[in-house]
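Long-time lurker, first post. I've been practising inverse folding by hand and with some scripts of my own, and I keep getting stuck on stretches where the structure tokens seem ambiguous. Below is the full token string for one chain I'm working on. Before anyone asks, I'm not after the true native sequence, just a reasonable design that respects the backbone. If someone could post their per-position residues I'd love to compare against what I wrote down in my notebook.
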């Protein structure tokens, strides 16, 4: 019996070592291989842990955005996409407009040709703090829009969206779980007022696989200074010629500095 237990223990250690030394596929979800660290992709946490009730950032809760000026913005995902390793080319758009009462922003998400959720999902999407650079490199969008500096360590608590990152659309309104995705909702914590810390109109939206790899991204542009939508067109951009900047590493759960660095690059 003891010999059997010893063999099992050694086999388990060998498996952990093999997992930690392997080079994971950049788009297939990865399982943490150590109890003292978690994998990262493109500098971002693969798994941000379960929600912690009431957790918020140094800036406190996000504030409801009232008095937003009438405007319509749209982000149309380009062809080709940034990372084609999933074998699909995501198409579609995210449209955002001011509601009639000027409170928050109404979003309409319309996506097709998404990767198989069984392999790569659920997919997540966020508003990021910088626009997509001219070369189409999605890593250039940097971190999520996060005026309260909440960070990535704990997952968004969907029942308390004011505690989440302002740009965490999937966290507040639901992940993408199908190859075609159409959903509409109002987000009270984003703004169409230029200069507001919650303004997104000159920023970008990024779609990630479930392990945080950036699949595609697009910039918001104003299509109307009213509460109406314009016809959607699909931009064609020069493909990004560099690698998808995929890397794995361990981030200590007790290392606040490393977690902050990881959060900065998502």
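-- Answer (accepted) --
I ran through it position by position. Result:
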């Amino acid at each position: 019996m003891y010999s059997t237990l010893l063999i099992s223990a050694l086999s388990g250690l060998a498996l952990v070592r093999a997992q930690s030394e392997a080079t994971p596929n950049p788009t297939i979800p990865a399982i943490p291989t150590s109890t003292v660290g978690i994998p990262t992709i493109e500098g971002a946490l693969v798994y941000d842990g379960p929600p912690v009730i009431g957790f918020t950032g140094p800036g406190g809760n996000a504030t409801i955005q009232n008095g937003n000026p009438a405007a319509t913005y749209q982000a149309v995902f380009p062809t080709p996409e940034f990372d084609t390793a999933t074998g699909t080319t995501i198409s579609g758009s995210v449209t955002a407009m001011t509601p009639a009462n000027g409170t928050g922003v109404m979003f309409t998400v319309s996506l097709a040709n998404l990767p198989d959720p069984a392999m790569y999902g659920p997919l997540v999407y966020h508003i990021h703090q910088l626009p997509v650079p001219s070369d189409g490199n999605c890593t250039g969008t940097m971190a999520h829009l996060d005026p309260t500096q909440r960070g990535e360590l704990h997952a968004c608590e969907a029942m308390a969206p004011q505690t989440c990152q302002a740009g965490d659309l999937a966290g507040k309104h639901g992940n993408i779980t199908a190859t075609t995705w159409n959903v509409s909702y109002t987000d009270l914590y984003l703004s169409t007022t230029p200069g507001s810390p919650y303004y997104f109109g000159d920023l970008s939206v990024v779609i990630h696989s479930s392990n945080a790899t950036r699949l595609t991204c697009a910039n918001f542009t104003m299509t109307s200074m009213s509460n109406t939508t314009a016809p959607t067109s699909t931009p064609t951009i020069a493909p990004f010629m560099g690698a998808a900047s995929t890397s794995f590493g361990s981030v200590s759960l007790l290392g606040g500095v490393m977690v902050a660095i990881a959060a900065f690059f998502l």
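A couple of notes from the structure itself: The longest strand covers residues 105-112. The helical segments are 2-21, 117-120, 169-173, 256-264. Happy to go over any region you disagree with.
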